[in-house]
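Morning run. Coffee first, then this:
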Amino acid sequence: MNNHMEAEATPRDMPSAFKKILRSVSWTAVHSIIYFGVLIPLIMLWYKVMGNHDQYGEWFNNNGIVMIVVNDIIQITLFYGFIRIAKKENLFKRCNFVRIEPTKIYLIIALSLAAAVFTHTLFALPYLKSNFGGYESVMAFLVDTPSGWSFLLFLLIGSFYKEIFFRGLLFNELRRGLYLPVCYLLLCVIYTYYFELMRDVPLMLYAAVGTCLFTTLYLWTRSMYSAVIMQVLSTGGIYVLRHNAMIEQYHNGYHNALLVFTFSIIIFCLFKLRALCQTPSAYEHEDFKKYAKQ
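And here it is:
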């Protein structure tokens, strides 16, 4: 009798599950349309129009990172209004910008700085440097070339924007209708595709691991601030390392020891964060329960 009832109940559940998937994919597509709807015209305006200006063209061509900042400001403003109108919600509340306990913040800081040193040391390895230039080209554009003020704007505004868009909007929408591993996989594909990082295998893997790490921090801490803090400190740490020529000259024993040491710190911080985030206080935020249900 019970088996018969369960068999009958399954088909009735299917439309509901399908609707959830369709809704998740649809909202993800809508957010992506807004993303490209702003970015592509802005790139055309910045490089094709202003880049050919007789007086200011050189500045526009040499300050692409400022264009990214302008894009981020426009898109944060647009998404704030869009979510307010379409969802009747506050964008920042929806993304779960809530307070984090001090102990977790200290661990996230240690994790971020260790990740910066690990990344910088890893991509200083001769094999990666000589055979895969994707990371160096990205760092040259984002870190090496810009002036200090433009990089600072990119670091602060860009970190908030990336977390709002990829974690707060796309990931939270995907979670409503899809299994968590599928959400991780799709977010990695979306991130590497949107930023054109698939052309270089180590760079693509680096971006995918970073996406998974930031997303996991967001899930564990139930706060978008955790991902923003790590984004700012890890990127800022790489900026400091590159501009002070640290760990540039490869030395086999020194580099290997530094890789092991920083990787150990990363693993330790992740284990400690996981243990802290399993406490009941980590599940008390009603906003997270509403927008990113387990």
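Residues 187 and 254 are 35 Å apart (CA to CA). Good start to the day.
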